[in-house]
Structure formats: C-alpha cells, structure tokens
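User: quick one
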Amino acid sequence: MYDKVLRPKKELVLCEDGSNTLFSKEFNEPYHSTKDGALHESLEKHVKPAFSLKQSLPKLNILDLCFGLGYNTFATLYYIKQNNLQTKVHILSPEFDEALIHSLDSFDFPPEFDFLQAIIKAIAKNLYYEDEQFTIEILLGDAREEVPKITQKIDIIYQDAFSPAHNPLLWTREFFADIAKIAKDDAILTTYSTAAAIRLGLYENGFYIFIHRAELMRFSTVASFKMIEGFEYVDMELKKIRNTTAQSLRDKDYQ
Ligand SMILES: C[S@@+](CC[C@H](N)C(=O)[O-])C[C@H]1O[C@@H](n2cnc3c(N)ncnc32)[C@H](O)[C@@H]1O
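Assistant: Done. Structure below.
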C-alpha cells in the first residue's frame, strides 16, 4: 500500500475514472487531471492519438516527459498488449524524483496494469527495464539537462509535465527547441495543454498545431512538423492576428 511517511510532500488522490494519482504539495498540483482520470488521460490524450499515427511502424522511440508515476509509459505497454502490436518500443523518460520511482512497486495502480508487475518492480529497483520488445530507461536528473543528451531520434513525445504555471521551464520556446532537435521529421507530440503561449512555443519551433478531441475528455493538443490527418488543424497565423498579446514562454523570464 501507499506509504505516506515516505512521501510527505505528496498525497494519494482517487480520480474519477477509479485510478489513483498523487497531489504534489511541492508543485501544488495533481500528477493527473483528477476529473479526466490518470489512466483515461494517459490513454486518450497521449497514447491513442500518438499510436493512431505511429502504430504501423516496427520500432518507436518515445520521449515521456516526465516519468512521475509512469502512467504514460505503462499505458503505452497496455495499449500495445490490448492491440496485439509487435512494435518494439524504447521509452526514454527524464525524472528528477528518484524516491518516487523507487516507491512505485508499492503504488496502487489500476488492474489494467496488473500484467506489468514485473516491469514496474524492475523500474522501481533499477530505473531500467529491457526485454525483446521493450526498453524503458529513466533518465535520472533535470529534464532540461537530460533531453539535450539524448542521441536517439524520437518518434513520439508525451509532454506531460506539471502545468506551465507551476513548472514553466519545461514549457519554454528554448525547451521545445531542444525537443525539436532530437525529434524525427515526422515526430508527433501530445500534450494536455491548450494554452496559446504553449502552442506558440511549439509553432515557433516548426510544429503545426492540431486539436485532439476524445470522448469524455477535454480537448488536448497534438503537434507535428507535418500536416496530419484525423486532427483539427489550428491556424496559428490567424490565432496570432486574433490574440496579439499572446507570447511563448522564454527561459530568461524564469531563471
Ligand atoms: C505531472 S507529473 C508527470 C506525470 C506522469 N506523466 C505520470 O503519468 O505519472 C510531473 C513529473 O515531472 C517531474 N519533474 C518536474 N520538473 C522536472 C524536471 N525539471 N526534470 C525532471 N523531472 C521533473 C516531477 O517530479 C513529476 O514526477
């Protein structure tokens, strides 16, 4: 069971989909939208839109920002199993909260993750897991330092950091530039943020912006360097004309 003594700065929260998440007192924010639900949000805002475009590929490199409770990584493996995919997946996931990762083997995950018990245990112990199909690597440290060190070219980016209001340095134009450098030409980025400042930061780095709508879910953002089918295109030039005060976040304002 969850041990509150080990994690005094976090509280367990039950989401509306029945899955558990944490509330971070440090960032004053839950790890997931408690309304959308941790598992539901991972699947609907990140895994499904990304895999709708990428699941035919034999091998995928995924950047999961940041690992936290690992829902996005574990939901990816769940989706692959549910859909009998043979896709080989290498997940790279920065995270600076080492104690959190080590505690994950006792976190009360939803039953959908029961088949992942051995993988969760390995990650909690070694911050690493590998078998024939999956490699999961926690990049222990600050994402701003870890992302530029990545040498793999990335197919999918799950941008799931704490909100721009509470963790702005993971949403700046400069951080998106670092992400763009390691992304493949046809990479896809998913994020729950629909804020104009965030979309502008992505757009200024060459990403086209799209709206993703899922059932029982607030809409979210998908971004790609190429035009993509199945999502609603957002004309950022028009947005800029309509919202002349919107600006991307910049490192210099938060350092
Ligand atoms: C919203 S939670 C991520 C939720 C996660 N995707 C999940 O499914 O559980 C944000 C995570 O980012 C981590 N974090 C915040 N700032 C970071 C940074 N600069 N570098 C690395 N990790 C960071 C926090 O420790 C926290 O675990």
